TrEMBL record:
Belongs to the YjdM family. Residues 46-116 form the Protein YjdM C-terminal domain. It comes from Aquirhabdus parva. Residues 4-32 form the Protein YjdM N-terminal domain. This is Protein YjdM. SUPFAM superfamilies: Prokaryotic SH3-related domain, Zinc beta-ribbon. The lineage of its organism: Bacteria, Pseudomonadati, Pseudomonadota, Gammaproteobacteria, Moraxellales. InterPro entries: YjdM, YjdM_C, YjdM_N.
Length: 116
C-alpha cells in the first residue's frame, strides 16, 4: 500500500512524488507536499465565503441565486438558513445540510453562504 495521498482534483490513488511535488498521472494535477500537510490540518474546518468559521447550528445567508436541481425553484439572494449541519467529509463540495422554508431539505456549498 502506498502512503501517498490521493489526488485532490480527481481522487486518483496513482499519485507519485517528484521532488517537492505530488503528481497525478491521470489528470496531470500537481501540488506541493506542504499544501497536502496544510490541507490535512484544515480538513475539518468549513468556512463561509468571507472566511468566517462555520459551526453546527449557525444561521447563514445565501449570497447568490441558487437553482434547485430537478425543479423550477430558486433559492433567492438573502435567504436566511437557520440551524445548519456541517458535512466535513462531503466529496461533492456540498458541505452544509439544511432545511429551507418553502423548499425543504437540501445541501449547500459553503462558498455560496455567509455567516449571519
Amino acid at each position: 500500500m502506498s502512503a501517498l495521498p490521493n489526488c485532490p482534483k480527481c481522487q486518483s490513488e496513482y499519485t507519485y512524488e517528484d521532488g517537492d511535488l505530488y503528481i497525478c498521472p491521470e489528470c496531470s494535477h500537481e501540488w506541493s507536499k506542504r499544501a497536502t500537510t496544510e490541507a490535512a490540518d484544515d480538513s475539518a474546518v468549513i468556512k463561509d465565503s468571507n472566511g468566517n468559521l462555520l459551526q453546527d447550528g449557525d444561521t447563514v445567508t445565501v449570497i447568490k441565486d441558487l437553482k434547485v436541481k430537478g425543479s423550477s425553484l430558486v433559492v433567492k439572494v438573502g435567504t436566511k438558513v437557520k440551524n445548519i449541519r456541517l458535512l466535513p467529509d462531503a466529496s461533492d463540495g456540498h458541505d452544509i445540510d439544511c432545511k429551507i422554508d418553502g423548499i425543504g431539505a437540501m445541501k449547500l456549498k459553503s462558498e455560496f453562504v455567509k455567516k449571519a
